[in-house]
Amino acid sequence: MSKILALTYSFLILIQSFNINLDDISKINALIDHAQFHKEMYGDSFFDFLTEHYGEVKHYHDSDNQDHENLPFKDNHHMCTHINLSFISPNISFKINNTEFIEIPFNFFYKESFTSFEKPSVFQPPKQA
Description:
Helix content is 39%, strand content 0%.
């Protein structure tokens, strides 16, 4: 279920990134009619029609005809992007105090409690088993 939801959201974001609105969709018929006009009058293919109206040479072709205002994707509001970013730069500074390692003198001295005195025989381990 989560994969389907993720795919749906990603597809929605993809479609929204094209900036296609309902006004452009309603002008698709004008695009097809104008492409047919170019095919009949000039013998242009659909790809040539698209390069003349939306490609690199559109500035030369747009000045000739006033019917181009009715074509979809000609308005410039879909090219405008407003991005509001707020950057918060907190002044966080960390001071690391590097103190040098000072060797602590060895204060622990273990001395086994050993006496040279003989213990009485009562406290000795058994000698025969």
